[in-house]
Amino acid sequence: MTSDGQSVERLREYLRNLKPEARAMLIAELERAQLRGDDMAGSELVLEELRRTIRAEAQQVPRIGDAARLFFMPFEPFLIDAAADHKRVGRIARLSLEPIWGWIGRDLIPAEAKALTEDINRALLADDKTKADQLVRALHERATLRMRETLATVGADEKAQRRLAIQVGTPRATEDVATLLHVLEVRDALADLVKRLPNYVRVFERELIEQAKVHIDTACAAKSLGGDAARKADVIRYGLVLLMSRLAAPWQLIRLATRVAESDVAARVAETPYAVAVTIVLSEMEATVSDLRTAFKAGKPVTSILKELHGAARGLRTEMDLSVESTWSRQLAAIRSDVSNLLKSEIDAAPGRVRRLLRPPPAKEIRPGSTVDSIEVEDVQARVEFVNACRNYAGELALSEVTVRAYSELTQYLETGTKVLLDALRHAEARERPFRQSQVDAAIRLCRSLFGAEYAELLTKAADVAVQAATTERKSVRA
After folding, report:
1. What is the pTM of this model?
2. For residue 65, which of 133, 151, 143 has the smallest C-alpha distance?
3. Quick one: CA dihedral 440, 444, 445, 446, positive or negative?
4. Whole-angstrom Cα distance, residue 404 to residue 350?
5. Fewer CB near the last or first residue (10 Å), C or N of the chain?
């Protein structure tokens, strides 16, 4: 390690050993220094390490903040750590905030943003939170007025939308600005709703559904909305996003829509103001498919993602009547098709991967003392577990046929192929025995994934017997 690396490591060790209170005080002082514009060598590094430490230990530390952070505070419940070109309803990508803030200060309200930002920073330095909140509210009002004018000017003009996208610097510029505007226009109603909604809902049904409806309806009746129908619709949309983030099963949000419609028929649900709940759930499913694609390409486990998609698809199909052709039914069909197209080739390929791994080669092809590649064994085992997991979710994800076929081939091959491997191990010469043993071990691992621990234990005992038999035979030959 270089001397610089050693210095950073010593700094990390020092910061880790600080008491939580000391860390909080140090962060506050460094953030105040940044607000004053003081340029202290190493302050950014220290802040970065402090924040990393408190995140690792889940320590809650109040932050001094700056104008940008305070400006975007009402959007915190709607921020997602996703690509900027996402299509999730009522959401903004966290990484889009910086370019949006730059656009506000450079193009939208440059003079007002500069003056108010300086005033906010001075209020923060003076620890005058009330004054800072008032100034942030003023900044919100200026920005809201100009954003409304900007969107009205852009309208449906594609050329104007492209210009706005270049100015803002995000791929969803029009949608991002609209989301900012809508949240700011109903921020007081949403702030009150946040306090009323339950923090966590394990099962969203009956009494909890009714309570949630009452809370959202109450927010829609807030005086700050002035009876504006568009703003009430925004309260419902963003209120539903808030609620969904607190549900253990987000798809259950549709139960509020069917409750309001007093029907599970899609056409009846679509006539109510709460129909957007179904649109939100479907957009979240589309985002989950994107997560599945990313995880799959990276070789990461996908069982939990499949479970989530399966639950949402089953919930939509069982709790709503989507039998008649509709936008929602087509959207759900497209989601199921995307999942099927993404996974079926991999499911189909799994048996072939197992056969290649466990094919017993002739003794002359085995290098003395060699073994099967452990990385390949892990990869094949992950694929077998993946096929096994798909069995539980195949029906709702349009994977039944390919999954049944692959599972049947896997079970048949492992049941017959393992016996061949055990026989090969029993008759193996010393030079080939490590390879034969490693193949048997790999087969046992795969059987454990597919058939369970008890079956794998029986195979392990059979492998031990095979090794003992081989040893006995060799002793007999020498005698």
Report:
1. 0.78
2. 133
3. positive
4. 12
5. C
